[in-house]
Amino acid sequence: MANEQDVSRRDFLQRLSVVGIAGLGAGSLVSACGGGGGEGGGSSSGSTSQSASQASGQSSGGGAQTVTIHPQGNQMKYKETEFEVPADTEIELVFENTASSPSMQHNVLVMNKPPEQGTFKEVGQAGVQAGASNEYVPDHPAVLAATDISKPGETVSVTFTTPSESGKYGYVCTYPGHWATMQGTMIVT
User: Fold this and answer.
1) b or e along 117-131 (b: 16 or more beta carbons within 10 Å of the residue's beta carbon)?
2) Among 3.90.780.10, 2.60.40.420, 3.75.10.10, 3.40.50.360, what is the CATH number of 45-188?
3) Tens digit of pLDDT for each residue in 87-134?
4) Domain limits, the chain
5) Do 156 and 82 form a contact (C-beta atoms < 8 A)?
């Protein structure tokens, strides 16, 4: 079977029903999707903490500033785990889903709260409850902006105004099972 970290929760559960090893599979799912706040895992922090603002080709003219982020291969992680933007500025956040596995559907939900595990969990679980018909974006007070869900090969974007107060704000994928490891920080200066 493929690495459990490379399959979505839905695909994983479908495989469990076919194989019939629900007890063993549930433990693997908890291990694959739980824990792992921030750094750690199997990749170096140097490559995963690449700044999206350096990789985005931002515009400096009169239009919205553009920030582009990507998934880290077929993992439930962002390649760019932080980006820096000025306060009270209109930006276009672009998510290019460069994953190749059909199960790696993602979105980017930007929060108006600091990047804390409790908030990531609350918003992530609320996203699951919101469901696919709402692009897994909850009606939650911590949500500042969100892209639609993107399938591999698709690009989605959202334009919004950054908070007027400088600080660190979290962003997270709210596709089911992804919130625990697919997180980042928007730094507002």
Assistant:
1) eebbebbbebbbebe
2) 2.60.40.420
3) 999 999 999 999 999 999 999 999 999 999 999 999 999 999 999 999
4) 4-33, 45-188
5) no
